[in-house]
Amino acid sequence: MPPVRTQGGKKKPPPEGFEDIEDTLLEFQTRMRDAEKAPHEGKKKYETTWPIFQIVHQRSRYIYDLYYTKEAISKPLYDYLLKNKYADAMLIAKWKKTGYEKLCCVRCIQTQETNFRSTCICRVPKKQLKESEEIECVNCGCRGCSSGD
């Protein structure tokens, strides 16, 4: 869980309703700590960060669903969670746009980091791929996050 920033030594309490989701956020924090400490022997260099990306995605999706789908948390609590980096605000902003509802991570749509200035292979709809072709994103380990699937 990200540290809570304080101003002038005074600790500002979280908004009302934080206690209801605190246990789930602590569980995500524990899973993140375990993923960071997991052994990396036998894995490729880029595979070591996949569990971290997946946990960040799950935590962000949990907060997104609470606010937008279930409407279970208030706007001040949602803003508090984004401000204190409990969720990836950039990823949630993309989820709200058409065509990005199932996006796995923001790195998969950044064209600057690829060789041919295109998006990641996981963004290609599965019906456009050959049947025998098994895709796996190098950035986060996603097996397909195109909204057209």
From TrEMBL:
Principal localisation: nucleus
Family: Belongs to the BUD31 (G10) family.
PROSITE patterns, sorted: G10_1 (PS00997)
GO biological process per UniProt: mRNA splicing, via spliceosome
Cellular component annotations (GO), alphabetically ordered: spliceosomal complex
UniProt keyword S-adenosyl-L-methionine present: no
UniProt keyword Transport present: no
InterPro entries: BUD31 (IPR001748), BUD31/G10-rel_CS (IPR018230)
Any matching Pfam family: BUD31
Sorted UniProt keywords: Nucleus
Compartment list: Nucleus
Protein name per the record: Cell cycle control protein cwf14
